[in-house]
Design a protein that fits this description.
Elements: H1 2-31, H2 49-60, H3 64-69, H4 74-79, H5 82-89, H6 94-99, H7 107-135, H8 144-151, H9 164-175, E1 181-187, H10 200-212, E2 218-227, E3 230-241, E4 244-250, H11 252-257, E5 267-268, H12 278-294, H13 303-309
Antiparallel strand pairs: 1-2, 2-3, 3-4, 3-5
Helix pairs in contact: 7-9
């Protein structure tokens, strides 16, 4: 009888311990914060043009994840040097702390940097889609002044001869449902007459900025596209990390030189192609080489290495 009671108690203790152990494992598993080993950024591309083309293809397919994967995310955040950026720019604003990474040695800080990076990419995508929708819409009228006002983030007086509520709803819906996109040609700074892009001073500034973010290659690329018969140009800065090219940011250097709105997601709708011939390309290269020789102290590389850093494909490199 004693033996049976002892065995029963022993069995009850074993079952209780098993239950407690199982619950601990369950709740530990539920609360465990497993770190994802899957990168947000893709594997990168072999040429500076490819991430821009893939961005447009993904936009055409309405594939947001693919759009994000064309950008440097982990590589950018891990290489970003906050101190170097501050010393280079010599100013600081609150929105920079929101939109840019901050050098961190903690898991929380690194995860926050990646999510902020994705947030910036998505915000630019939203601005781009709004700008396209606006240009294709009759909602605000067709005056260039109204277009410019909207692109600069200023309120626009709404038309009175149409149903505001319906048209506004349609406009906002269109901005999330971009019409069929026709992808055109790759555009380089020379194609739109941006000679200022090829000054040593400008390239030296870009090289310094590239060093601040740890890139080993930097380029400005544009691509033409058309929506509902309206021509657009998307401007993008791309960077190279470990031999692979990624999108860096919408608009970028080419967009700034074209005086694009900073709220248009990198697109321009008021641009003209320049007639560039081989002789002019040769002159650009020769002038750049002469200027480089005079200011070589601004670079830590040879002229050929500098040309490779900026991957000036349209200049015969």
């Amino acid at each position: 009888m004693i033996t049976n009671k002892f065995s029963g108690r022993l069995l009850l203790m074993v079952l209780t311990l098993t239950l407690i152990t199982g619950m601990m494992i369950f709740f530990t598993g539920c609360n465990a914060k497993e770190k994802s080993t899957v990168n947000i950024e893709g594997p990168g591309f072999d040429t500076p043009e490819q991430p821009v083309i893939t961005y447009m293809e993904a936009l055409k397919d309405n594939d947001i994840e693919k759009i994000i994967s064309t950008f440097a995310v982990e590589s950018y955040c891990a290489s970003y040097d906050t101190k170097a950026v501050m010393e280079y720019e010599r100013f600081f604003a609150n929105n920079y702390a929101i939109q840019r990474p901050v050098t961190s040695d903690t898991d929380f800080g690194n995860e926050l940097n990646k999510h902020l990076r994705v947030s910036t990419i998505i915000n630019n995508l939203r601005q781009l889609s709004l700008a396209i929708s606006y240009r294709c819409s009759i909602f605000f009228g067709d005056s260039e002044s109204a277009v410019g006002t909207f692109m600069e983030g200023m309120p626009v007086v709404l038309r009175t001869d149409i149903d505001v509520s319906d048209e506004l709803t349609n406009f906002l819906q269109k901005s999330s449902e971009i019409g069929e996109i026709q992808i055109g040609d790759i555009i380089y700074p020379t194609d739109v007459g941006l000679d200022s892009y090829y000054s040593v001073k400008f390239l030296a500034n870009r090289k310094t900025w590239g060093d601040c973010i740890g890139a080993n290659g930097y380029r400005s690329i544009g691509i033409e596209f058309q929506v509902e018969g309206i021509d657009f140009l998307l401007c993008m800065d791309v960077v190279r990390y470990d031999g692979k090219w990624f999108n860096l940011m919408n608009n970028g250097s080419m967009g700034v030189l074209l005086e694009n709105s900073g709220l248009a997601g990198g697109i321009s709708y008021d641009f003209e192609k320049a007639a560039i011939f081989t002789a002019e390309i040769d002159a650009i290269v020769n002038n750049l080489k002469e200027e480089y020789t005079e200011h070589s102290e601004d670079f830590d590389q040879t002229f050929e290495e500098m040309m490779d850093y900026f991957s000036m494909t349209e200049l015969g490199q």
